[in-house]
Amino acid sequence: MTLKELQAKLRRVAEVQMAQDPAHDIPHLDRVWANAHRIALDENKDDPNRANLRVLVAGAYLHDLVNLPKDHPQRERASVLSAEKSESILGNLGYSADEIDAAKHVIEAHSFSAGIPPRSLEAEILRDADRLDALGAVGIARTFMVAGTIDRPFCDPNDPFAANRALDEKTWSIDHWHMKLLKLPGDMVTAKGEKIARKRARLMLAYLKQLAKEMDTELPDHWADLLK
User: Which of 65, 88, 179, 205 is the most exposed place for a label (fewest CB within 10 A)?
Assistant: First the structure.
């Protein structure tokens, strides 16, 4: 089975079995795979077999099989549950026992909330690839799709950029950018992932500066400092 054929089969499985929401849908999986493939090609430029693309494509399309809302009390277990659910699927697609174990770890370790350190190159790549989809133009859109899904307000109307208050991402959507998203470039593991992440984060910072102008205020320096 070619990689393209395998991708198509995994994509169909996700379409049927994954509980989708506007920010975690099939296009999200397609983008994660595109990101992972791009990073893997960079990692494999000196050794074509350094990163296992079969393991990566499995992780890309099955990492959100169990998709719990951001405010769900068991959110941090979603990646582990997804990994468990992937085992029989991968067996039916002809994956070896070693490949299944590798793919399960990739799926478990991709999650920010799970806090599981990546122990393989494939896990590092998929983690970076998934986090890239939280940045840039797509990341901006996904922030507010998630906010709408869980009924979280856009920002504090009295102090939108936390100039004189404590940041609170559980209450205000924009605060999530400061507390997590704009810090992601410094948390990337692969060189290619970091390069792409910094470019996308700069776009988000430019958006925030324009947003501040439209709100007739200024963006505090502590936001720009995150990207230094």
Answer: 88
